[in-house]
UniProtKB/TrEMBL annotation:
Residue ranges of every copy of the Fe2OG dioxygenase domain listed in the record: 173-280
Coiled coil regions in record: none
Keyword Zinc-finger found: no
Phylogenetic lineage: Bacteria, Pseudomonadati, Nitrospirota, Nitrospiria, Nitrospirales
The name this protein goes by in its record: 2-oxoglutarate-dependent ethylene/succinate-forming enzyme
The protein's Enzyme Commission number: 1.13.12.19, 1.14.20.7
Length: 338
């Protein structure tokens, strides 16, 4: 039997005033139901912007360690550089740099008005990376546009108006971009190959938010778990990879399961990727949509507050505090599927 390949969907028809996009909506719904992953083309992010993003990403991670440590993130400020990321209490073989949505972009990043639950943005020394900040901010805005388009499409695929899912994202969402660098060596021990540690680039997990829009290079390492088998996500030239997260699984009442995925540790080639995590406002409360529940399909989850869920999950990035917070903790006992 040939290996499964996640679908490639052209999203260019989305966002029009007429409805030639019904086939696209249907394809997205089918991909969410069967895979939780899909490639997208027709996303309208300019190729020259993507080239600049790659250049700045590689330039940043090539900086001396001391220059990166200046913007190290912490439990108090989750934005910045880090090389000790944990997933499910196991250290990932990578370095990361996070930056996120700024509530008041006209003010300084460190202004109290720009402090969020996740912290505030910090940027590398402009003398070392003069184009890093403007390029990354431009890319953030481009991903934001794509994510809103996709979330509206997912809403329609579930039979609800497009703005049903986006109202907790408009203006004040808590999304962030993560720059991932997977070296061929353990980032904490330059002499030790990453593949010899027994760890992975990222350990198996589901994404906590609504959806993830991923830009990754041509190194095959991302895998999804389908029916108990790990399936490699082969890169598609010019495409972005999208996966749904726990919030969509809850909204859909398990109709669209958030996929378990992982990243292999790098071996003979370095790897880079940039996920955009699309997350709602901290005070957002999500639960199964009324449109997908009835007497035969009762709600399987009690309401979840995003800010609380995000905070508990975020703390597990830095230390082992026991079992990681999961949406399964919010399942309603006795309901079918619980």
């Amino acid at each position: 039997m040939p290996a499964k390949r996640i679908p490639v969907i052209d999203i260019q028809p989305l966002g029009g005033r007429t409805r030639p996009h019904d086939e696209t909506i249907t394809a997205i719904g089918a991909a969410c139901r069967e895979y939780g992953f899909f490639h997208i083309i027709g996303h309208r992010i300019p190729a020259d912007l993507i080239e600049r993003v790659w250049r700045e990403t590689k330039r940043f991670f090539a900086l001396p360690l001391d220059a990166k440590r200046v913007v190290s993130r912490s439990k108090e400020n989750a934005r910045g550089w880090y090389n000790r990321e944990l997933t499910k209490n196991a250290r990932d073989m990578k370095e990361v740099f996070d930056f996120g949505h700024t509530p008041r972009p006209e003010l300084l990043d460190e202004d109290p008005a720009n402090w969020t639950q996740d912290g505030f943005n910090r940027w590398p020394d402009a003398r070392l990376c003069p184009d890093f900040r403007p390029t990354m901010q431009e890319y953030f805005r481009a991903c934001e546009r794509v994510a809103f388009t996709l979330l509206e499409a997912i809403a329609e695929s579930l039979g609800v108006p497009p703005d049903t899912l986006t109202h907790d994202f408009v203006g004040r969402h808590t999304s962030f971009v993560r720059l991932n660098y997977y070296p061929c060596h353990d980032p904490l021990c330059l002499e030790r190959p990453a593949s010899a540690t027994g760890h992975l680039g990222i350990h198996p997990h589901t994404d906590a938010g609504a959806l993830t829009v991923l830009l990754h290079d041509d190194v095959s390492a991302l895998e999804i778990n389908l029916d108990g088998q790990w399936i490699l996500v082969e890169p598609v030239t010019g495409a972005l990879v999208v996966n749904i997260g726990d919030i969509v699984q809850v909204w859909s009442n398990d109709r669209y399961p958030a996929p378990v995925h992982r990243v292999r540790a790098s071996t003979n080639r370095e790897r880079y990727s940039l996920p955009f995590f699309f997350n709602p406002v901290y005070e957002a409360i999500y639960a199964p949509l009324a449109a997908v529940t009835n007497e035969q399909s009762l709600p399987r989850y009690r309401p979840i507050t995003w800010g609380d869920f995000r905070w508990k999950r975020q703390q597990g990035d830095y230390a082992d505090y026991g079992p990681e917070n999961q949406i399964s903790d919010y399942r309603i006992p006795g309901v079918d599927g619980a």
